[in-house]
Amino acid sequence: MSDFSVSQLWEDDYFLHWEAVEERYREPLEETKSKYEAADGINEATAWLRDNDIEPDALPFQCKLVHATCSYDYEMPVKDPCGRYIYTFDGEGERDALIFPIVDNGQILDVGMLFIDGLEFATIRQKAIWLGGDKISGDSVRLHTSALEWLEAGATGCVYVDPQRRTPLKRLQTVDKIHCNNVAWALEVWDWAFGADDAALERFEIDDDADNIREYFVAQAQRQVISQSLNAKHPGRFNLVMA
Amino acid sequence: MTSLAAIWRDGNELVEREAARLLQECAAVPEPDRPSKAAATTPAVPLSANDNKPAIAEKPEHRARLEAIQREHGGTLRIGATGLTLFGATIDGKAGQAYIDERGACWLLTSRGSLPVDETPRRGLKATPFQLRDTSLIPQREWLFAKHYQRRYLTVTVAPGGVGKTAHGITESLCMVTGRPLFEPQTGLGQKLKVWYLNLEDPADEIERGFAAAAKHFSITADQIDDRLFTDSGRDQEFVIVRQEARDFKVCEPMIDDMLAVIRENAIDVVIVDPFVSSHEVPENDNTLVQRVAKQWRRIADEANCAIELIHHATKGNGEITADSTRGGGALKDAARSVRVINAMTKEEAEKAGLPDERGYFRIDFGKANKVPKSGSSQWRHFVSVPLGNGKGLMKRGDEVGVVEGWRWPSENSAVADVPPEALEAIKARLGAGDYRENEQSAQWAGYRIAEVLGMDPTDAVEKRRIKLMIKAWKAEGHLRVEMRSDHKGTERPHLVPGFPTTE
User: Fold this and answer.
1) Which of A167, B53, B285, B446 is buried most deeply by CB count within 10 Å?
2) Do A202 and B5 touch (CB under 8 A)?
3) For B368-381, how does the pLDDT look when each residue is reduced to its tens digit (9 = 90+)?
4) A190, A225, A228 ranked by CB distance to B4: nearest
5) What ipTM describes this predicted complex?
6) d(CA B344, CA B320)
7) Does residue A234 form part of some domain?
């Protein structure tokens, strides 16, 4: 079980059980690794990184720029016919995805894809929860808001990449100081990782722009007023959560 | 670098200030002028075509009333010449426009003029679900007398003229009042009842004669009657329940109310109306109207919790009277719970019964008895003449009034009931001493010997018939039996010989 877990400390039995279930439907790790290794596009990746002010040599992994296509495997020989996405990498089409291995607990467990067109991020196996998960320990960690930002920072710090779950954010409880440059994301993490505990606010250090911070709270005030007004006018009609 | 705690604290203060400011701003902005809901649903008052006339205003209270009529009778609501009007309403089959005038009265304007509109809402029908209960929980039928009179029901007795239905009614009244079984086979007489006897034809003194004669015949005293009998004549008071007014027939509600009050006040159990024809003014052959009359009598029975007995004439004719022989429409018979018919005795029946004369005898049958098992035999009645002894002076005998008493059809056993055992033994000895034929045609008929012993006249048809009944009864009892013996010619013929019945 520990092979599949990236944050066993913070994930309960329920989480681990479903991780094990989902593992059966993921692309086998060896396949993913060999696909990554078979792909070319190192030079293209280096060029693109340099164009975006990222030093490729500073990154602890090799990036490759490939043409990624996605298909759906309907004939997957598993017990339950659920199918899965199959990514293939080649250099035939326009190279649009920057791929790199994701390491956690010192092991490669997935391959990340940053689509350079819209800077969307995805993983091949939908296994990775964090980028730079190994950095979540010790005195402090930098919590980035996007994969590009994380690459720009030379893959220091961490970024949360799971699109569905929030519970694994609790892994941040192991560090004393969390640095973040986005107050909205910091507050959301505070809510999920620390249960909105006031004492935990001290763990966050924010280096966000003052205007951004003000803008965030003004937006909250506006939302609150809109909710109040709507509830006053149409009592019980809208299930609005007060901001 | 700023601590998130500080940001959060400052941010919350900022949110509070900002929210308060925004709320103030919202309060300061006036509501945009939108049409209200009420105004949106109410149709705008149309502008008058002629500027000199003011636009017709609609009264909201009129709208509610007219909408109620619209739900019942259809139509469309529009502003008409006099205000809000319900066009195309059909009330009681008459189409027109319903409107409400200045005084608040609602009218239906039809091609024949304006009619007042009854605005009471119609009461809807409902179907009551039947629940099967334990039979012990079902209340028993309240039979009052003779398995005919039943509380809260209408009953009818049909009789041809001159048979004795009035006298029968009188005796029945006395039965119920005194609680005595004046007609022998009566059953179900558990209590003394209060009876109101209404004779709508005879004067009061004739009614008194009838009751006095019956009381005299049955030895009924005033104490036995007590205060339970009420008699009234249609000549003194009017008991017309449905009256003709011009071309219409109206139910006399005041009379019904009075009657209900009297019945309730005196706790009367049975009302006998004699005859039915005098209690209304409708044509007898009109079933619908007769049904209306019957319905009113039934209503009295129901509301006053009493039994109503209507004595009705039968059609003319010599045939057997049945429930279908009621004069006029059959609706009365159909409305009644129990119908009895009175038939006079026929000549043949009198002969069979061994009576010298059929006059004065009649029988009562249930012509239509809902929910009563059919009784095999009829109830027979006999008319007897009772002198009242009210004559003044030596030569005046006074009145003789017919009284009806019970009479039993003579059975075979009753033919020999009054023959003493010694006489029977004498007859048996006489018949055993010789050869006496069973055949009545024979000169050696055993009946002649019986007549000798009993001192009867075998030449009289009635007496002869009685002797035949006796022989039949004794044969059945085993006192006589048939034996084949040779006559003087040597032919085997049935002869009557004495028998000795055993108790086995």
Assistant:
1) B446
2) yes
3) 654 444 334 578 88
4) A190
5) 0.84
6) 9
7) no
